[in-house]
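4.2 Preliminary Data

To establish feasibility before requesting continued support, the project team ran the inverse folding procedure on a target of 181 residues. The structure was first converted into the token representation described in Section 3, and no sequence information of any kind was made available to the design step. The complete token record follows.
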């Protein structure tokens, strides 16, 4: 069957990205990036920006935070519909226990969505920084064995689509939730 063949190729390619246990520094570096894309971490940072700023950054932080919530709901729904098991491995017990499904990568979707929203808002420097960070987050997740390459690619596609939707719906959000923005 074609899908089984694609999944075997995906697993084979993904295994090539795995970092060996003896690569301690690289694994710590990858772990930093892998965790930096956690939604709770980003939401705390955005909440602090929202509290301590006014004007555009106050509004942007609320928009980003809301986008992360929407993204999380959509990705979790897809994960529980598809139910693809994460790759075998020891790293990332918190992810493996809280969310045993890998497809699509929520971290990849979130990171690329934030980058695309930044570009859409005209915050190009932030967009480029988030794009580079998003790529690092995505490949760190594969190199530590909690995702396959196709999980990442699907996450990126979902992230771009969600960013386009969030940007299109931005005026509606501002009208519905003026007290937030």
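Position-by-position output of the design step:
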């Amino acid at each position: 069957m074609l899908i089984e063949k694609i999944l075997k190729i995906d697993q084979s390619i993904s295994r090539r990205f795995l970092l060996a246990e003896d690569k301690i520094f690289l694994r710590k570096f990858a772990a930093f990036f892998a965790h930096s894309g956690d939604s709770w971490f980003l939401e705390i940072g955005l909440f602090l920006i929202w509290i301590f700023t006014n004007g555009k950054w106050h509004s942007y932080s609320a928009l980003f935070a809301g986008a992360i919530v929407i993204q999380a709901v959509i990705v979790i729904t897809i994960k529980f519909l598809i139910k693809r098991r994460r790759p075998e491995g020891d790293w990332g017990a918190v992810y493996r226990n809280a969310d045993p499904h890998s497809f699509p990568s929520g971290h990849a979707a979130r990171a690329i969505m934030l980058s695309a929203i930044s570009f859409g808002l005209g915050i190009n420097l932030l967009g480029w920084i988030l794009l580079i960070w998003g790529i690092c987050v995505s490949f760190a997740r594969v190199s530590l064995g909690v995702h396959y390459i196709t999980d990442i690619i699907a996450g990126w596609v979902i992230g771009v689509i969600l960013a386009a939707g969030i940007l299109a719906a931005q005026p509606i959000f501002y009208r519905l939730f003026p007290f937030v923005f």
